[in-house]
Amino acid sequence: MLAIDIKKWLPEFRLEASFQMDREIMAILGPSGCGKTMTLKCIAGLVKPDAGSIALDGRTWFDSRQRINLPAQERRVGFVFQNYALFPHMSVYDNVAFGLRGRPAEEIRERVNRTLDKLGIIKLAGRFPTRLSGGQQQRVALARALAGEPEVLLLDEPFSALDSIVKRRLEDELLRLQDYYQGHILYVTHNLEEAYRLSSRMAIYEAGRILQQGGRQDIIQHPASRRVAALTGARNLWPGVVRSLEEEQVLLEVNGLGSLWVTRGASQELKMGQGVTVGIRPGHIQLGQKEAINSFSLAVSHCVEEVAGATYWLTSSSGLSLEARSNSSRERRSDGTLCDVYLPPAHLFIIGDDN
Amino acid sequence: MDLIPVWISIKTALAATLFTFFLGLVAARYMAGRDFKGKSLLDGILILPLVLPPTVVGFGLLFLFGRNGPLGQLFFALGRPVVFSWSATVIASTVVSFPLMYQAARAAFEQVEPNLENAARTLGASEWRVFWRISVPLAWPGIAAGTILAFARSLGEFGATLMLAGNIPGKTQTIPLAIYFAVEAGKESLALNWVLIVLLISLISIVALNYWKKRQYPNRAAIPAYSPEGSIDAGN
User: Fold this and answer.
1) Are B228 and A29 in contact (CB < 8 Å)?
2) pLDDT tens digits for range A272-282
3) Same domain, A211 and A253
4) CATH number of the domain bearing residue A260
5) What pLDDT digit, counting tens, does each position of A170-183 carry?
6) Among residues A228, A253, A278, which one ends one of the domains?
7) For residue A169, what are the contacts with CB-CB under 8 A and spacing of at least 6?
8) Cα–Cα–Cα angle for B186, B190, B195, nearest 5°?
9) Residue in A29, A79, A282 closest to B119 by CB
10) What per-residue confidence (pLDDT) applies to A266?
11) Residues of B in contact with A232 (CB under 8 A)
């Protein structure tokens, strides 16, 4: 288990990160300049935090009180940098072999070849990094980081420089990586979809703070604050008031829309008459469906067609607007027409207004 | 025509370049990417020999290494006085050419992407190994350029050498000194011969060093840095 609890004063803000992770893939999600990369550098030992501690399976890597600060060389984490940081003056083979110094020559050769083979780049062994495509460079960077079999693998926006086709293929590869690499994989990104696809746990960062952390589904289903909901793509957030509390469901009154039944979150404390925020993601809204509850008839204000499906902006008669994604591109609803909208109670979430 | 000044000049320039190379690298590495109080003052002191008149450098060295100077007394006690010896020509050339090497190497080190050095550290490389395997090779064109300039400057050194080493034929008389004293004595054709020899040596060494610099790291073109867009892509 990797346990992190660090503080670092930066020119623009103070980074305060505290989380633990097991041998799994965890994603740090946040906008650029929020302290994500700094967190990775602190873990790797490239930057010294101002306070706190970092420990791996009970071994202390950093502790400001005990004045322990293991240098990066002794932590031996695998680090895949955003621009890959391949050594441009060394061949792919030498890049991967760089971290294996001190071992018998036969072992180095065997390990480099095995790692290159696993990542499907054995044919590139003699080439130089500048002669490689982005996807190939990324694999070399991954091979170099993994060759020494580190306990922790840190990936800093590994896919941001790649085109989408190569990106999807490499994402699959990263997921398959777990078949032969059983370590802690901590992964930084500003792309929610990517974070969700790849990780089992996520931490949402903003301006040096962790806004929320937990299982990926938990964060999507129960964002703890308006900010987390907005950062994770919940475009529809409306103020509401609690009107009725049932065992499984809550009835809300939403201005401009009407009554909404919401499935209760696990440990949510709500009071009658309490002001809350209710939200739903565009992809969870069902268009053209009418149910006994949570169904409304809204006017289409405009629509953007996509490869598979479309995004609709709809408005209620009293001016509340709603963004919905439809996966069917069969019929395009024209602007101004009325459309049935169903908001499934299980996909609605409530945020207490003090958050 | 005796060729001893040619030999002394080459010997001096090579020795001075060797010292300058290592001193310049160490100073450049120390100053690059570090921030401390008085950094610009220290930087100014290291570059000073470049902007001062060589006679001023020579005067300063004479003060240091003279019989009553702090270092001069030490060497005198050891029985090897520096002033008017061949070592004096090397010291003068080293001091005068040092800033060229230092400046070029420092600029080159500052151009090396810090994450390349960081990557090496996470792969377990000691700071020593990071320096020799990553920083120096990647800064190589700048270091080589500094070395070439330092060598050329050593070869042409006159003022400080004359002050510290004097003009002793067969011992401290380098080509620039020989030219000056030949002209002084009215031997213009002799001076012209020296001039042609200096031209030839300078040209050959610069061409050779350029060739060496190009050959050393043909694949060092940097990977372009990438900067990502500014926000979360949270499409649903």
Assistant:
1) no
2) 888 899 999 99
3) no
4) 2.40.50.140
5) 888 888 888 888 89
6) A228
7) A135
8) 115
9) A79
10) 65
11) 232, 234
Model confidence at A271: pLDDT above 90: no
Average pLDDT, chain B: 86
Distance CA A23, CA A19 (A): 14
User: A112 and A13: one domain?
Assistant: yes
Partner-chain contact A192 B235, CB within 8 Å: yes
- CB-CB neighbors (< 8 A) of B141 in chain A: none
Contact state of A130 with B126 under an 8 Å Cβ cutoff: no
Residue B128: in which H helix or E strand, if any?
Answer: helix B127-129
Which single residue is written with the structure tokens 């450098």?
B57
Which residue among A194, A228, A262 closes a domain? A228
Query: How is residue A162 written in tokens?
Result: 């790649």
A214 shares its domain with A340: no
State if pTM tops 0.90. no
Residues A312 and A243 grouped into a single domain: yes
Taking CA atoms, B76 is separated from B61, B72, B93, in Å, by 15, 6, 21
Each residue of A188-232: pLDDT tens digit?
998 898 899 999 999 999 989 999 999 999 998 889 899 999 888
pLDDT tens-digit series, residues B66-118:
888 888 888 888 888 888 899 999 999 999 999 999 999 999 999 999 999 99
A-B interface: how many C-beta pairs under 8 angstroms?
A: 125
How far is B219 from chain A, CA to nearest CA, in Å?
Answer: 6
Question: For B4-216, CATH number?
Answer: 1.10.3720.10
HSE of A331, CA atoms in CB hemisphere, 13 A: 6
Q: Which domain holds residue A299?
A: 235-352
